[in-house]
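Below is a filled-in request sheet from our internal design queue. Each sheet records the structural input a requester submitted and the sequence that came back. We keep these sheets so that new team members can see what a complete request looks like end to end.

REQUESTER: design group, bay 2
PRIORITY: normal
MODE: inverse folding
CHAIN LENGTH: 201
BACKBONE (tokenized):
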């Protein structure tokens, strides 16, 4: 099982394109089935241990752009902060923004958000992206993002909603997709490490 999980993780990390803000179909249908078939089991009887493995499957499905499959997993662990965070991202990707914000509130100050905020601020600080973007709401929001102390998933949801509404230039899409990429990476890193602790227990 460890080898199968490692291979799936490797394939997802090797994607050449960033995840779309609103994916329309699974990136790799065959991979989606492999994720579903992963025998993620633990001898631990703790609810938290079970939740960590379900969150891992939810995250893998979402990294594969499979919204429905991810949703079915995150719904099983609605009382878990990591499950709630994956749940929120999934709803944001399907453009159900109010529902996304509800689940982000359930996730609270998730531990992955601290590293995410640091990475996003560093990227904005050291990237040429701001100079390439047209003046406007997205550029202003990124500047605020660089200065904020904590990651604000609701503010990012507003940025995604603005982009997907068609009210702003397509020039900003790649910057927003990259921020989402950093978010997915940090949440997955946290989820994967938590699941590894369970699998190795």
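RETURNED SEQUENCE:
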């Amino acid at each position: 099982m460890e080898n199968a999980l490692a291979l799936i993780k490797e394939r997802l990390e090797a994607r050449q394109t960033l995840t779309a803000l609103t994916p329309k179909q699974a990136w790799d249908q065959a991979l989606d089935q492999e994720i579903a078939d992963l025998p993620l089991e633990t001898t631990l009887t703790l609810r938290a241990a079970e939740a960590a493995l379900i969150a891992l499957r939810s995250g893998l499905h979402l990294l594969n752009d499979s919204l429905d499959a991810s949703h079915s997993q995150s719904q099983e662990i609605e009382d878990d902060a990591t499950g709630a965070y994956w749940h929120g991202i999934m709803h944001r990707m399907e453009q159900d923004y109010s529902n996304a914000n509800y689940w982000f509130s359930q996730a609270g100050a998730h531990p992955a958000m601290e590293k995410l905020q640091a990475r996003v601020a560093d990227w904005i600080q050291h990237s040429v992206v701001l100079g390439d973007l047209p003046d406007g709401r997205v550029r202003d929001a990124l500047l605020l993002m660089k200065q904020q102390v904590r990651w604000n998933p609701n503010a990012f949801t507003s940025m995604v909603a603005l982009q997907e509404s068609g009210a702003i230039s397509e020039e900003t899409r790649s910057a927003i997709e990259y921020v989402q990429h950093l978010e997915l990476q940090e949440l997955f890193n946290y989820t994967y490490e938590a699941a590894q602790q369970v699998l190795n227990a």
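SHEET NOTES:
- The chain has two domains: 2-109+188-199, 111-180.
- The first helix runs from residue 2 to 13.
FILED BY: M.R.
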